[in-house]
Design goal:
242 residues; 10 helices
Length: 242
């Protein structure tokens, strides 16, 4: 099979993946927020499978960098939720129009951000992490933008703990989401080829994020998490109208 992308497409995908990787490497999530709306303009095949595979590589790198700060109790409770959410999301892709799902979950994310700004504490209790994991798995499988629910639960933690814990959860979660897509025939050789275009930019973005993460850790990480989560929710909603 011939390689399906020309040089311009490869360069554009590189720039997009660098930007998304810098954001996720700094805040703990956000690759999908930048990647989904822009990569589909190059080729709709990029979403969700290839972007999930690129996210898998990025999450491996981040979890390795922040391994000393990972909250393994949180990871333990998030994974069952991710499994259930990803499975449900894969099934719903074949039953319910994506637009309806996006509107519902985008609105839920914005509501949660508003409540967080109002002062309600989404502490990372076992129940909250389980529920957030379920929503994250569902949204990640249906739209490749699943980071916001998990980030809201850990928003008041240190930057290294947010990034390390989320990346470990997402590493396992993306495996589950990709397996779900494989089962329903939405992940194959074409998707792997598209993902390979993203890998160089993701590696470069990860390297650059070391510096931006240090800046956010000087007291700006919670604001960055809430703003990125709000942008995620707004994008999930608005993309249905354009």
């Amino acid at each position: 099979m011939a390689f399906p992308y020309d040089l311009l497409s490869v360069l554009l995908a590189f720039g997009i993946s660098v930007s998304g990787a810098v954001l996720q490497g700094s805040v703990g999530f956000g690759l999908g927020l930048i990647g989904v709306p822009l990569l589909v303009l190059i080729d709709p095949v990029f979403v969700p499978g290839p972007l999930l595979l690129g996210a898998f590589l990025l999450n491996l790198l981040i979890s390795s960098r922040e391994k000393k700060a990972i909250d393994f109790k949180g990871v333990k409770w998030a994974i069952p939720g991710r499994v259930f959410g990803a499975t449900l999301g894969a099934l719903m892709l074949n039953l319910v129009p994506k637009d309806h799902l996006s509107l519902l979950f985008g609105a839920m994310v914005l509501l949660a951000v508003g409540i967080a700004f109002a002062g309600l504490d989404f502490s990372p209790t076992s129940r909250n992490v389980l529920v957030a994991g379920t929503l994250s798995g569902f949204m990640g499988t249906t739209s490749a933008i699943g980071g916001a629910p998990m980030a809201l639960v850990f928003q008041k933690q240190k930057g290294s703990r947010i990034r390390g814990t989320l990346s470990m959860i997402f590493t396992i979660g993306t495996i589950i989401s990709m397996a779900s897509l494989l089962v329903i025939g939405r992940f194959g050789i074409r998707e792997v080829q598209a993902a390979s275009v993203l890998f160089p930019g993701i590696i470069v973005g990860f390297i650059l994020s070391r510096h931006t993460a240090r800046i956010l850790d000087r007291g700006f990480i919670r604001a960055a998490v809430l703003i990125t989560a709000a942008l995620s929710g707004m994008f999930v909603i608005l993309k249905n109208f354009f």
